[in-house]
Amino acid sequence: MGTGHLAVAVVGGGLAGLSAARALTRQGYAVDLFERSRLLGGKATSFEIDGVEVDNGQHVYLACFTEFIDFVEQLGPLPDGGAPLYLQPRFDVLLLARSRAPARMRAARLPAPYHLAPALMRYRHLSLADRLRLALAVRAARRPAPPDETFAAWLRRQHQSEAARRAFWEPFLVPALNARPESVSAEAACFVIATAFLGDRGAARLGWSRVPLGRLAEQAAQPLNRVFRRRGVAALELASGPDGQSRPHLRALVAADGERIAYDGVVLALPPQALAHLLGEPERLGLSGLDRFQSAPIVDVHLWYDVAHLGFGFAALIDSPVQWVFEKAPGYLCCSLSAAEEQVLRPEAELIELCQRELAALLPPLAGRRPLRGAATREREATFIPAPGLRRPGPHTACPEVVIAGSWTDTGWPATMESAVRSGRAAAAALAANLADREAGGDG
Fold first, then answer.
1. Which residue of 43, 104, 307, 428 has the smallest Cβ count within 10 Å?
2. Is there a contact between 391 and 289 (Cβ–Cβ < 8 Å)?
3. Is 85 exposed, middle or buried (0-12, 13-18, 19+ CB in 10 A)?
């Protein structure tokens, strides 16, 4: 039986929801998207500040983000015919530290994992002994870590010095996981290291969107049946079998304005806390432990200077609350602060002053200069923390017509744009299979 007569709702207009909605649309379902905000894209969106469209943070992807790259490529070319994504030809990162000459970490034209060995051995911010131990630790990430071990404990077990933590592990792993080594699992950190640095020579190449992320989200929503903005969902109306023991089935979706709308299936692409609030009793759908997920904030500070193009592109900052700075356009710099629990509640003026001071100390052309203007964007619950022992659910629930998605679900990846797209596609596949079984009479 065809799917054109089946209507599906996707709740949440972030990357997870959009990827699920597009996958279901391609299979012939009529998909309605519900987003409580006026913006699509969720944690990866854009908006205007003083007439300039900016992303709500500098979102970087790696070449190993294959599902995210495929998702964007399916949107088609930009209006000018250009590709929407930029990707480095090879891994190449500038590292800046106070009172020291800049260092560069660049992949050699050698097969993995040896492609990084020359860069590690020449890394001027570490002693020779630390470089050797660092190279051994990177290789050790291939071996499974105990499930209850923190990344900080793993670093100690690999004899990593405080200097190595500050000059390598924190600039690269804290932004990747949006968490400090003391709170993140060694499993998650080793996955990042092995996937980015050990699997393929080009896997760790960095890239970003050439256009504001909100525009990609808007284009992703174009094929959908209907898109409801500023319209949240209050509840799902579920029915149990006649005996009261059978698994629940979906009867309708209840919008925040009280309207009851019947759908054949629903994808809930929401963060854990929002999902628990919507369901009321998540255990009824076989979902437990949602309250165990803890989130971490990200702060981005946008600064505009009266300077020409600086030419560095982007850089990692050593011994700084600012992990990365990106040159978005001539005179426009974006500072990214991950795991920013100490900064997220600070006034905007303080954040601007903090980043201005850091950039002045590390970028000579900005020494003694004040920005023309600045702005701070905050995501107080940007990503979940992959803590040791945390169990992440898959897309299925006890109700065959309801599935879940989100970068926090069990994709095998940390909370990244790649994880969000993978979760959305997995949820779409799970729901399509369940609905096909129901249509065939397989769900009695």
1. 104
2. yes
3. middle
d(CA 318, CA 125): 9
Cα–Cα dist 29/3, whole Å: 5
Element (H, E) at 419: helix 417-439
CA dihedral 27, 28, 34, 38 (to 10 degrees): 90
Question: What are φ and ψ of residue 317, in 5° steps?
Answer: -110, 130
- Both tokens assigned to 305: 């200077």
Q: How far apart are CA 21 and CA 360, in angstroms?
A: 45
Question: How far apart, in whole angstroms, are the C-alpha atoms of residue 273 and residue 295?
Answer: 10
Reduced to 3 states (helix: H, G, I; strand: E, B; else coil), residue 312 is coil
Distance CA 434, CA 53 (A): 41
Closest by CA position to 267, among listed 286, 246, 253: 253
| Tokens 């990593």 sit on residue | 160
pLDDT digits (tens, 9 = 90+) for 225-266: 999 999 999 999 999 865 556 789 999 999 999 999 999 999
Tell me the per-residue pLDDT of 327-340, one tens digit each, with 9 for 90 and over. 999 999 999 999 99
Locus of tokens 């309708």: 252
Mean pLDDT of the region 41-63: 89
Closest by CA to 47, choosing from 218, 219, 228, is: 218
Average pLDDT over residues 389-411: 97
pLDDT tens digits, one per residue of 159-195: 999 999 999 999 999 999 999 999 999 999 999 999 9
* Residues shown for the chain: 444
**Coil, helix or strand for 301?**
strand
Percent of the chain residues past pLDDT 70, beyond the cut? 97
Residues 312 and 94 sit within 8 Å (Cβ to Cβ): yes
How many other β-carbons are positioned within 10 Å of the β-carbon of residue 41?
A: 27
DSSP E strand boundaries for 45-102: 46-49, 52-55, 61-62, 85-87, 92-96
Contact 35, 58 (CB under 8 A): no
Rounded CA separation 120/105 (Å): 7
DSSP per position, 221-277: HTTSSEEEES--EEEEEEE--TTS-SPPEEEEEEETTS-EE--SEEEEE--HHHHHH
> Distance between terminal CA atoms of the chain?
17
Token pair listed for 189: 């950190």
Helix (H) or strand (E) holding 354: helix 348-362
CA distances from 349 to 82, 354, 359, 435 (A): 37, 9, 15, 52
